[in-house]
């Protein structure tokens, strides 16, 4: 008769996930009993949960690699860094949402609960060591995301965004499942180490087909070309704090999942997936740069910007080396800071219950709100990749890794498209500094101010002290090889 | 053995007959009831094969939930099935052709089907050979140990689905009168009854 203790799997690596799951259920009960009056409490509770989980993740022993739950869950340096980023993005999504939802009168307690459930899904994705866990995490994340996309359910655009996201997302989940079933069928296992042990360089056609389908689904989740079509519409239609969330935390999880599958499960067939990733990277960078030029809505601009940025991050993955993955992780850290900072400012464009989303509405911001304009200008310079701001270093690391891996053409295309991209980022700066000012906006809400301050510090002062972030990214990349 | 064979023919015969009645009956409610009968008989066949867990799941999920849902939909929506059947004659040739093609394909596939004898021997890898265990216990043993992580995650996904459905559809309608038992119980004679002296031939103001 086995004792209870011997049957129980090792649960120590899962403590952050368990904290979030149990905590979110307590919050649901609290919200269900207290009704709408509980919104403030649930928001604070969710924020505390996310911050607590963040510190537990940060405190996990570095450099160890633990698998548990029959090998479906892996805790390593890479998971640690990406989970920390996911948790920061989710916490920011709650901070940014308070003022907006109160004024839009959709301030309901389900929003923070769905964000936390979504975060659990993303953490499962980041830690997946098995195709089933990967799919379940992805589905948990996506389902919560579909709901919060149409959270403003009386708004036509928001419901449209949710429906569009749901239909296309379900399609991509189907593709992932189809690809996963092919990989399972041709390798006989769903666990990543198992797949590694079975595959060798001359993989059969079935494996290639499976990889193509899985790559397509991942491209959809990262919103990389040619599966990006949903991004501008969903970003524009969703309530702005939700857009800020979509552009931050789920991107971290999607990129982490992609890295985990391609580096963790398919390292011996690099030749097969490298060409897919190279194509996706080039197409994303090009579309992100050229299609953004004509945009007038700043949320759509940010959507194209995120498509382009995923392209740059994928250059590091295409390199397939430890340095490349380090580049990806650094890129995602800096991208998170830039995106959240930009959205904190977009969320502050408000005069008496009216939100402004057009780029023209930023004109003359330097005279009405000099600090806000300065911060947004820094974010835009950084997104354009101008030294010494953080965005320059993000691009520098991935391009350097690509050149070292012999992908010189890819790096050159990256540099060219980032020059094109600089045009529309700098146009925002020109409008803010040289156009006639409009009436001033209201004061920035506290949540946005916190997010903006933190992300500005990372973006502007990264060059003074890059070693902690670069070191963390290096440790993360090392744990995968 | 003969009893088992007799039950097999009983269940199989009724299943086929009720399956036919599902498409043949004119009244959609009768169709759904025949569908339920077909499910119950299929469950009986599973019991004969020794798959008692599958049999119970079939009853609980299909009869208990899905078929009843069908019944609700059929009864609540006013679907005119006679109108739906209007094009039957017209589409019969094409539909029949496709049906025949599928039938031939199934026969081709099943005709050349051989089952690895090893698979029949070891249906569940994790159950120790010779252990006398029902398949409910065997499934539970892997579901709650080896796959407990996936089981819990699936639970969370269902929770999200539930919250999502409520978030997107639950509306507070103003002006709806609800029963409040606490208020009802708190009523006393003083708050509920008023004693009025009625002057003769004048009545009272209500």
TrEMBL record, chain A:
<keyword id="KW-1133">Transmembrane helix</keyword>
<comment type="subunit">
    <text>NDH-1 is composed of 14 different subunits. Subunits NuoA, H, J, K, L, M, N constitute the membrane sector of the complex.</text>
</comment>
<keyword id="KW-0520">NAD</keyword>
<dbReference type="Pfam" id="PF00361">
    <property type="entry name" value="Proton_antipo_M"/>
</dbReference>
<dbReference type="GO" id="GO:0042773">
    <property type="term" value="P:ATP synthesis coupled electron transport"/>
</dbReference>
<feature type="transmembrane region" description="Helical">
    <location>
        <begin position="12"/>
        <end position="30"/>
    </location>
</feature>
<dbReference type="GO" id="GO:0048038">
    <property type="term" value="F:quinone binding"/>
</dbReference>
<feature type="transmembrane region" description="Helical">
    <location>
        <begin position="272"/>
        <end position="294"/>
    </location>
</feature>
<dbReference type="InterPro" id="IPR001750">
    <property type="entry name" value="ND/Mrp_TM"/>
</dbReference>
<feature type="domain" description="NADH:quinone oxidoreductase/Mrp antiporter transmembrane">
    <location>
        <begin position="128"/>
        <end position="420"/>
    </location>
</feature>
<dbReference type="GO" id="GO:0012505">
    <property type="term" value="C:endomembrane system"/>
</dbReference>
<dbReference type="GO" id="GO:0005886">
    <property type="term" value="C:plasma membrane"/>
</dbReference>
<comment type="function">
    <text>NDH-1 shuttles electrons from NADH, via FMN and iron-sulfur (Fe-S) centers, to quinones in the respiratory chain. The immediate electron acceptor for the enzyme in this species is believed to be ubiquinone. Couples the redox reaction to proton translocation (for every two electrons transferred, four hydrogen ions are translocated across the cytoplasmic membrane), and thus conserves the redox energy in a proton gradient.</text>
</comment>
<keyword id="KW-1278">Translocase</keyword>
<dbReference type="GO" id="GO:0050136">
    <property type="term" value="F:NADH dehydrogenase (quinone) (non-electrogenic) activity"/>
</dbReference>
<keyword id="KW-0812">Transmembrane</keyword>
<feature type="transmembrane region" description="Helical">
    <location>
        <begin position="396"/>
        <end position="426"/>
    </location>
</feature>
<keyword id="KW-1003">Cell membrane</keyword>
<feature type="transmembrane region" description="Helical">
    <location>
        <begin position="42"/>
        <end position="61"/>
    </location>
</feature>
<keyword id="KW-0560">Oxidoreductase</keyword>
<feature type="transmembrane region" description="Helical">
    <location>
        <begin position="370"/>
        <end position="390"/>
    </location>
</feature>
<protein>
    <recommendedName>
        <fullName>NADH-quinone oxidoreductase subunit N</fullName>
        <ecNumber>7.1.1.-</ecNumber>
    </recommendedName>
</protein>
From TrEMBL, chain B:
<dbReference type="Pfam" id="PF00499">
    <property type="entry name" value="Oxidored_q3"/>
</dbReference>
<feature type="transmembrane region" description="Helical">
    <location>
        <begin position="91"/>
        <end position="115"/>
    </location>
</feature>
<dbReference type="GO" id="GO:0008137">
    <property type="term" value="F:NADH dehydrogenase (ubiquinone) activity"/>
</dbReference>
<dbReference type="GO" id="GO:0005886">
    <property type="term" value="C:plasma membrane"/>
</dbReference>
<dbReference type="InterPro" id="IPR001457">
    <property type="entry name" value="NADH_UbQ/plastoQ_OxRdtase_su6"/>
</dbReference>
<keyword id="KW-0874">Quinone</keyword>
<feature type="transmembrane region" description="Helical">
    <location>
        <begin position="6"/>
        <end position="25"/>
    </location>
</feature>
<keyword id="KW-0520">NAD</keyword>
<keyword id="KW-1003">Cell membrane</keyword>
<keyword id="KW-0472">Membrane</keyword>
<feature type="transmembrane region" description="Helical">
    <location>
        <begin position="149"/>
        <end position="170"/>
    </location>
</feature>
<dbReference type="GO" id="GO:0048038">
    <property type="term" value="F:quinone binding"/>
</dbReference>
<comment type="function">
    <text>NDH-1 shuttles electrons from NADH, via FMN and iron-sulfur (Fe-S) centers, to quinones in the respiratory chain. Couples the redox reaction to proton translocation (for every two electrons transferred, four hydrogen ions are translocated across the cytoplasmic membrane), and thus conserves the redox energy in a proton gradient.</text>
</comment>
<protein>
    <recommendedName>
        <fullName>NADH-quinone oxidoreductase subunit J</fullName>
        <ecNumber>7.1.1.-</ecNumber>
    </recommendedName>
</protein>
<keyword id="KW-0560">Oxidoreductase</keyword>
<keyword id="KW-1133">Transmembrane helix</keyword>
<comment type="similarity">
    <text>Belongs to the complex I subunit 6 family.</text>
</comment>
<dbReference type="GO" id="GO:0016491">
    <property type="term" value="F:oxidoreductase activity"/>
</dbReference>
<feature type="transmembrane region" description="Helical">
    <location>
        <begin position="57"/>
        <end position="79"/>
    </location>
</feature>
<keyword id="KW-0812">Transmembrane</keyword>
<feature type="transmembrane region" description="Helical">
    <location>
        <begin position="32"/>
        <end position="51"/>
    </location>
</feature>
<dbReference type="InterPro" id="IPR042106">
    <property type="entry name" value="Nuo/plastoQ_OxRdtase_6_NuoJ"/>
</dbReference>
